[in-house]
Amino acid sequence: MTTHPPRPMRARSPAEKQQRRADILCAAEDLWTTTPYADLSMNQVASAAQLAKGTLYLYFDTKEELFLALVDSHLAAWLARAAALLEERRPRTPAQLADALLEAGQDAQSVRRLLVLLGTVLERRVRPELLQAFYQNLNGHLERLLALMPLERGVSVRVLRQLYALAIGWQHLSEQPQIQHRPSGAQTGLALGQNCVLNSGQHNADEEFGLAVRAVIDRVTCVASPA
Questions:
Q1: Residue 39 has pLDDT above 60, yes or no
Q2: Contact 220, 159 (CB under 8 A)
C-alpha cells in the first residue's frame, strides 16, 4: 500500500503563517530553476509545498503575486546586505563603494532573474495596489542605502539606476545559451542567436560584470565632479 506524507497542519499562529508563506516562496523558486515561468502553475507550487491548492490561494491570489513577493524578498535581502556593508566600511572613494556593492551582490543571479521577470511580466499583470505597495517598500530600502552612499543624492541615484540597467542586460546575455535551444515560439527578450560573436569564447561573467560596475561608478562620479 502506497503511503503519502501527511499534509502540513493548518498554520494558525502568525509565526506559523509566516513560515508557511516562506515555504511557498521557496517551493516556487525551486521549481523556477527547472521550469520556465510561463509553464509553471500554481498547482505545481502547491504540490511542491505539500499544500492543497486552496491553501495556497489563502496566501497568494495569482502566480504573479507570488513571484512579486519573491522579488520583494530578494531585493530586500540584497539591499539590507549592501546597507550593512556600507555602514560597516564607510567607503569614501568610488572604488571602495564599488567593492561594497559588488560584495553585497555576490551570488545575485536570482535577483537579476527576478528583475527581468518584474519588468517583462509582473508589472503588467499584478494588481496596481499590490505593485504600489511593493514600490513603496522598495523605496524605503533604497532610501536607507542612498543615505549611506558617499556621494551626493542625485549621483547616488544615477549609480543605482545604472547598476539596475547593467544587471538586467547582463542577465539577458547570460541566458543566451539557454534561449537559443528553446523552440522559436518560446523565445522571449533579447535573443542573440547561436552564431552571434557575443556568444563565442569563454568568459568569466562575474569578473566582467564587476569591471562594468566599476567603470560605471567611476564614470558617473567623474562626470558629477569635474575638475
A1: yes
A2: yes
Inter-residue contact 196 to 189 (CB < 8 Å): no
Mean pLDDT of 151-158: 95
How far CA 149 is from CA of 81, 125, 167, in Å, comes to 13, 34, 19
Q: What is the DSSP letter of 5?
A: P
| pTM greater than the 0.70 cutoff | yes
Number of Cβ within 10 Å of residue 19's Cβ equals 13
Q: How far is CA 221 from CA 61, 105, 214, in A?
A: 44, 20, 11
Contact 159/217 with Cβ under 8 angstroms? yes
Q: Measuring CA to CA, which residue among 78, 143, 146 is closest to residue 114? A: 78
- Cα 154 to its chain centre, rounded Å, is 24
The rounded distance, in Å, linking the Cα atoms of 56 and 43 is 9
What digits encode the pLDDT tens for the residues 171-187?
887 775 444 444 444 44
Cell of 130: 499590490
Cell readout for 134 is: 511593493
For 179-215, how does the pLDDT look when each residue is reduced to its tens digit (9 = 90+)?
444 444 444 444 455 556 555 554 577 788 889 999 9
Amino acid at 223: V
CA distances from 227 to 66, 151, 224 (A): 49, 16, 10
